[in-house]
Specification:
406 residues; mainly alpha; Serine Threonine Protein Phosphatase 5, Tetratricopeptide repeat; 3 domains; 20 helices; disordered N terminus
């Protein structure tokens, strides 16, 4: 019986590699009885990483296989990598609580191993997951922790990633000047390192900031730069995000036909990638265009589909926007009795996502980070005073539709 299972696994791996144009050498390494477990786990990890945005369900199977082999060989290093891979799968399928659980397991193991680079990576992954759950203070805390480690290690790739993610946090909180400073710092490093995907991510985040402050030409310029690179490197996730941002931009200036076509392209990719968060936001984008064109019943249907997804996967931003869309549709139809319950739920959720205390905490985290770096300087003393004065963070709601990269 065990032999049959082994042959079945070999066939599955062979089939996966073939349909995704993976080299035969990778198949031989994974399936050879003479391959050491460490080499086999590395090959499985490389395969899973290559499939992450194309065949996400396969990635979960591969991560579980790596974990089983890592436990059998008592390799803590590969156990942490398996949990990290599972976390990535749960993240891109919008199961953020499960992603956090997996990345916390990876972090605990990596702290035990004392591997600072891997610790910083896990901190960064946790920051991204909390960011998607609108827990910005917690998110910023993890990003600043990872930034400290990357600075200590002089790891430029890590610094670029930390700068970029902090830029997204500040953009979400309405601090666009600060966000752009971080994003351009990240972009400089990514270009120097030749990291095309990282460069594209920076362009998208920069575009998002410019869109939020009304600089439409700059917004379109940087988003098109991002899309061009994503197409060149076949980054489907990056392509989907650029399509969505461009769709929103065209919708804002009334070019609804262009916007609808881009949303449809985006939605096709997001369904393929099982990106539930992206899918829900695209449904809302299409619904908004239908609302503007007075196709209220169709718009409500899209809003309800988005709301169902948002509730199932605990996607608070999508839930908020779908409630607003449905309320606006019923209001436009003159049915205030139906509009009001959705609007009340929208207001309640909107208030919970814009908690002032969360934003104050994020501000204090930055002050503490700067203070730790400049402890013996006059600037640090001033920062200390500012912290004790409990300086408030200016609260600005993040205006959807622009979407930063995860």
């Amino acid at each position: 019986m065990r032999k049959k299972c082994a042959y079945g696994f070999i066939f599955i791996i062979y089939f996966i590699c073939k349909i995704n144009s993976q080299p035969d050498s990778l198949v031989r390494v994974i399936n050879s009885a003479n391959t050491p477990d460490t080499v086999k786990m590395k090959a499985l990890y490389e395969l899973a990483s290559a499939l992450l945005y194309n065949k996400p369900d396969t990635v979960l199977v591969l991560s579980q296989t790596i974990l089983e082999k890592a436990i059998n060989s008592k390799s803590l290093f590969w156990q942490s990598n398996a949990h990290n891979l599972s976390g990535a799968y749960y993240f891109i399928t919008s199961r953020f609580n499960e992603a956090i659980t997996s990345h916390e397991k990876a972090l605990a193991i990596r702290k035990g191993l004392g591997n600072k680079k891997l610790i910083a990576m896990s901190l960064n992954n946790l920051g991204i997951a909390y960011q998607q759950m609108n827990m910005y203070s917690r998110s910023a805390e993890y990003f600043f922790e990872s930034l400290k480690i990357y600075e200590e290690l002089k790891n430029r790739s890590g610094l670029a990633m930390a700068y970029g993610n902090l830029g997204v946090v500040y953009s979400t909180l309405g601090q666009y000047e600060k966000a752009l400073q971080y994003q351009f710092s990240s972009l400089k490093i990514e270009k120097e390192n030749g990291n095309r995907q990282g460069e594209a991510q920076c362009y998208t985040s920069i575009s998002s900031c410019y869109g939020k402050i009304g600089k439409k030409d700059s917004c379109l310029k940087y988003e098109n730069l991002s899309l061009e690179i994503s197409k060149q490197i076949n980054d489907k996730n990056g392509m989907a995000i650029s399509y969505k941002n461009l769709a929103n931009s065209f919708a804002e200036i009334g070019q609804f036909e262009k916007a609808m076509a881009l949303f449809e392209q985006c939605l096709t990719i997001e369904k393929e990638l099982s990106d539930r968060d992206g899918e829900a936001l695209s449904l809302i984008g299409i619904g908004d265009i239908l609302l503007r064109n007075k196709k209220y019943n169709e718009a409500i249907a899209y809003g309800q589909n988005a709301l169902t997804l948002a509730k199932e996967y605990e996607l608070k931003r999508a839930e908020k926007e779908s409630l607003k869309l449905i309320s606006d549709c019923y209001k436009a139809k003159g049915n205030l009795a139906k509009a009001m319950p959705y609007f009340e739920k929208y207001v309640e959720l909107n208030d919970s996502l814009n908690n002032v205390e969360i934003n104050k905490s994020a501000y204090k985290l930055e002050l503490k980070y700067e203070f730790d770096k400049k402890e013996n300087t006059a600037k640090a003393e001033q920062l200390r005073k500012d912290t004790f004065q409990n300086k408030a963070w200016p609260l600005q709601d993040c205006p959807w539709p622009y979407n930063n990269l995860k």
